[in-house]
Amino acid sequence: MTDALLTRIADALDRLAPPPVGVADLSGADAFEWAGADRGLVPVQVVSALPMHLLLGIDQAKRILLDNTRRFADGFAANNALLWGARGTGKSSLVKAVHAHLIGKGASLKIVEIHREDLGDIGALLDHLRDVPDRVLLYCDDLSFEPGDAQYKSLKAVLDGGLAGRPPHILFYATSNRRHLMPRDMMENERSTAITPGEAVEESVSLSDRFGLWLGFHPCSQDVFLEMITGYCDHFGLAIAPDVLRAEAVEWYTTRGSRSGRVAWQFFLDLAGRHGVTIAV
């Protein structure tokens, strides 16, 4: 084989090989979104986050997550957190609010969102973040897995395990409607088809066990629902007679068939729109 041919082969392999992973530059923003291995990290200049005091009915979860995140931002040990529970109960709002609150207090803390469908890139993302000087909160909203989905196995090693594991300056927060991240029929299917059913289920639920914090979120009472809306009105300067506000709010959640922070916010947006009030979050 001639030297010229060897050179051509080497050049072709260089073109096929992925470019070397560089250290991410997080100096341009406090929040980023992972846009895939091709586009990398995209800055998010304005994060939609409500102030902490407007998140009502979740006081214990708010206190625990804020304390955990503050310790992490200060350079101390902290736990990965799974926020699970009913839809619209403030899980993702709390993660964003905690980050915004600490940034407002002068903390040096970045947040990077990775979407559920991009979890296959999590190894590449960690390579980008492994040598950054910043404390990084890695966040995945609506995390769940369906039958036949094996991505949870690679995520387990990232959270706790594997030779490289999770770098100490990176913390992982996830929200999910499912406590164990998988539907019951998926767990039952693994139980019924495995040689050792108990071990199969343990394999499936061991991902959620790698979160040191489990914070549960549940539908709110009518009083808390009305308190949320009153808080929104006070914060954004919308004056409505209390009896009118109560009647319209009760009618709204009755029509929707549920009470939650999301439903309260949607009612308030409708109310503000009808009264000509502009809302900027």
Description:
The protein has helices at residues 3-16, 59-73, 91-104, 122-129, 151-159, 184-193, 197-209, 222-236, 242-256, 261-274; strands spanning 31-34, 41-43, 81-85, 109-113, 135-140, 170-176, 213-217. The protein is an alpha/beta fold and 281 residues long. It has 2 domains: 31-217, Rossmann fold (3-Layer(aba) Sandwich); 222-274. A 7-stranded mixed sheet has the order 2-1-4-5-6-3-7, covered by helices on one side. Helix 2 crosses helix 3 and helix 6 packs antiparallel against helix 7. It is elongated, with a radius of gyration of 23 Å. The model is unreliable at 17-21 and 190-200 (pLDDT under 50).
Please write out the topology:
Elements: H1 3-16, E1 31-34, E2 41-43, H2 59-73, E3 81-85, H3 91-104, E4 109-113, H4 122-129, E5 135-140, H5 151-159, E6 170-176, H6 184-193, H7 197-209, E7 213-217, H8 222-236, H9 242-256, H10 261-274
Parallel strand pairs: 1-4, 3-6, 3-7, 4-5, 5-6
Antiparallel strand pairs: 1-2
Helix pairs in contact: 2-3, 6-7, 8-9, 8-10
Please give a quick description of this structure.
By secondary structure, the chain is of the alpha/beta class.
Considering the chains and any ligands shown, give keywords for the structure.
Rossmann fold; seven-stranded mixed beta sheet; single chain; 12% strand; 7 strands; alpha/beta; 281 residues
